[in-house]
UniProtKB/TrEMBL annotation, chains A, B:
<keyword id="KW-0804">Transcription</keyword>
<keyword id="KW-0238">DNA-binding</keyword>
<dbReference type="InterPro" id="IPR002577">
    <property type="entry name" value="HTH_HxlR"/>
</dbReference>
<dbReference type="GO" id="GO:0003677">
    <property type="term" value="F:DNA binding"/>
</dbReference>
<dbReference type="Pfam" id="PF01638">
    <property type="entry name" value="HxlR"/>
</dbReference>
<dbReference type="InterPro" id="IPR036388">
    <property type="entry name" value="WH-like_DNA-bd_sf"/>
</dbReference>
<dbReference type="InterPro" id="IPR011991">
    <property type="entry name" value="ArsR-like_HTH"/>
</dbReference>
<keyword id="KW-0805">Transcription regulation</keyword>
<protein>
    <submittedName>
        <fullName>Transcriptional regulator</fullName>
    </submittedName>
</protein>
<dbReference type="InterPro" id="IPR036390">
    <property type="entry name" value="WH_DNA-bd_sf"/>
</dbReference>
<feature type="domain" description="HTH hxlR-type">
    <location>
        <begin position="10"/>
        <end position="108"/>
    </location>
</feature>
DNA sequence: CGGAATCCAGACGGATACTG
DNA sequence: CAGTATCCGTCTGGATTCCG
């Protein structure tokens, strides 16, 4: 488990320690859609291994960005969701996504089935 | 040099490839304050080694987020700045910083001299 | 001043086997 | 189903030295 420092020069450094790395932002993004089970996340992100998924979810949980709920059933069911604080990151993730979309368009990079910034926008206006 | 994929599942993945890692977000954040020379960046971020600084700046340049300008003088002078597109990420970085500040406050983490989201806010209202 | 080259440790990530 | 445990290779990042 990655320990935070007791002191930071700049908030950006803290943010990098909290959500840096290859998977965390992606996990938070997908969890913002709604609660997800372990294997549901694996299907959503096929490239991640069980080991990495467990590890990253545990760190997010440890830093209070993700909540892990265990239902004592057989077979066991575990549901992951963002905490209120983790959820507060959503506008930022959304901004990142939009910026990424713009970059992809500018550079002619193909974007696939996944939930993108534009989809999100469309979805929001559908709701209103 | 990290090559981008020709196709992405999700814009977030593209964004991670563009500005992921330990240094890029921090560099873009500092470059948004204004153009900076190589050793100026080193002083701003004392923990980064020359190798990493060069490497990360080159990748940012290669992806069109940072511009590198060489002045043919003795001693040589090289100035780095954000491109227009790199600059478009600023609101996102600002949002990250604010969120990080909130986290630090919530968790009682000390924040130091560096340019933070709040400082930025203060600065903007000073200008207006 | 602004790098490049080299070497090395540790983090990251894959495969496989096992478990309540 | 939702993990743990272990082994192992790759690869990123850090320290140091050298260079025009």
């Amino acid at each position: 488990m990655k320990e935070l420092q007791s002191e930071y020069q700049c908030a950006i450094n803290l943010v990098i320690d909290l959500i840096g790395g290859k998977w965390k932002v992606l996990l938070l993004w997908h969890l913002n859609e709604g609660d997800k089970r372990f294997n549901e996340l694996r299907r959503t992100i096929p490239e991640i291994t069980k080991k990495m998924l467990t590890q990253q979810l545990r760190e997010l949980e440890g830093h209070g960005l993700v909540k892990r709920t265990v239902f004592e059933e057989v077979p066991p069911r575990v549901v992951y969701s963002t905490t209120d604080f983790g959820h507060r990151l959503q506008p930022v993730l959304y901004g990142m996504c939009q910026w990424g979309d713009d970059y992809a368009e500018k550079e002619g990079i193909q974007m696939n089935s996944c939930w993108t910034g534009r989809d999100f926008m469309k979805n929001k206006s559908d709701l209103s």
